[in-house]
Design a protein that fits this description.
globular, six-stranded mixed sheet, 5 helices, about 160 residues
């Protein structure tokens, strides 16, 4: 297992959930929710710099069958925008059901959908990072695939 904090990103149309791992890659925790739009990439890269992160992990939303969805291209484009502005590796990791799992976890803790709106994206990002950490621990190799800077050029 590589040492160093990872920053997880759950890309949504309105909000972006951000989470982090501890430097030993054992546990993921929420960081903040970033508004989608001007300054979103800069804020995420600032968080990564503050944490001295070794990589960014962007959730790749796929359909249950593994096929691309409308959100897939958006996440790939966003990962490309991040990759264009940092030397850190940006990894795309399958995030199927992360938001559903996050909603279930918050419901189980007694929070309503309305109460959870501000943290649901952070919890989804935690699930993405934890999945990536667990994969790396069991497989002995970093998770997902590397995003390339040119992938974000069409998506602004």
């Amino acid at each position: 297992m590589r040492l160093g904090a990872r920053v997880g990103v759950d890309v949504g149309k309105v909000r972006i959930g951000v989470a982090r791992s501890d430097p030993h890659g054992l546990l993921a925790t929420p960081v903040e929710t970033v508004a989608r739009g001007d300054g979103d990439v800069a804020r995420i890269l600032a968080i990564a710099a503050e944490l001295d992160a070794i990589e960014l992990i962007v959730g790749l939303p796929l359909g249950l069958s593994g096929s691309a969805t409308a959100s897939t291209d958006d996440a790939i484009g966003f990962a490309g925008r991040l990759a264009a502005l940092t030397d850190l590796p940006v990894r795309l990791v399958d995030e199927r059901l992360s938001t559903v799992s996050a909603q279930a976890a918050l419901r189980a803790s007694g929070r309503s959908s309305r109460q959870s709106r501000s943290v649901i994206d952070q919890v989804a990002a935690v699930i993405i990072v934890q999945h990536a950490l667990d994969f790396e621990r069991s497989a002995g190799t970093p998770p997902g695939e590397i995003a390339h800077p040119d992938e974000g050029q069409d998506n602004g």
